[in-house]
């Protein structure tokens, strides 16, 4: 039974109404990038709690998340933590091979790693454009290519890309990030069309303002927080577990006829 105020207290993962049961996920194998902290760490933990084996990749932090989850879960999925830089195609191959060696298959690939730099438009340094596109765009392409080559030969699978409300709404001083996330949206359509005949579904999630390290500085600055919340009709920050709700749905059989979709999890921000 869910307490009436749980919706206003969404960081309590255990009390969340989002712990929907998708028994078909048990025993499946997922790769999650950017899994060392933030949403990727929550995705890894929550997938494992639901019986999914996970290869967690990140520049830092993934082995620690794996140790934590494996230590906490008596049963459930197992997690392998690997150092992986999404800007390097060879590191995606490394994640794939780790999954194949340990679990024998890959069913799901979550392109979650991202960076969120800021600069006024005229001040954006070339290296900011380069690094943002390398991580947020190239990283998604390389991950999806690696996943799709494997899935194509193995009957299919599901890929989920992390887009953002910033891909459809302009947030000032974020041109590099905004445009990289717009690219992720369109790439999701391109992949869905091209990979659909191989039974590979490709969808995206477009979070709004979510409570992670990435947005900590906004939450810690009262003025910035007020300004940010004026762009959220529900007038609160979202919790990573609420984004996970969309992820597990997209991976589940309930979404088996859904591909090329971008699901907003943004408290309504895309409309403002
Ligand atoms: N937090 C939000 O409000 C929000 C909103 C919309 C979209 N998103 C997107 O959701 C995703 C997760 O964001 P988060 O809030 O958890 O951020 P976060 O900063 O807490 O975590 C991002 C993770 O990605 C990793 N990463 C960065 N560059 C990498 C690289 N080259 N290779 C491998 N890993 C790398 C980081 O080490 C970090 O662990 C990102 O794609 C982000 O753009 C976040």
UniProtKB/TrEMBL annotation:
NCBIfam families attached to this UniProt entry: PRK07231.1 (NF005559)
Family: Belongs to the short-chain dehydrogenases/reductases (SDR) family.
Superkingdom of origin: Bacteria
UniProt key word Oxidoreductase: yes
Gene3D superfamilies reported in the protein's UniProt record: NAD(P)-binding Rossmann-like Domain (3.40.50.720)
This protein's name: SDR family oxidoreductase
InterPro entries: NAD(P)-bd_dom_sf, Sc_DH/Rdtase_CS, SDR_fam
Keywords: Oxidoreductase
Any Pfam family hit: adh_short_C2
